[in-house]
Amino acid sequence: MKKLSNLPMYLGDMLHKSIYTLLSHYRFKELPPIETIEKHIRNRLNQSYRYSRDKQLWHQKPKEIPLLRELVYGEEIGRETIEDMIHRLQQCLGNLYESRSFQDAMYGNHINLYESEQFHAFRFNEIKIYVVMDLLYQDEKRDKWIIVDWKTGRESMEDRNQLALYSLYLHEKDNIPHHKIKVRNEYLASGEQRENSIQTNDLDQVNEIMLMSIIQMLQYMEDVKRNKPVSINLFEKSEHPKKCSMCNFRSMCERDI
Ligand code: SF4
Question: Which of 6, 81, 102, 232 could potentially form a cystine with 69 if both were Cys, beta carbons 3.0 to 4.6 Å apart?
Answer without folding.
Answer: 6
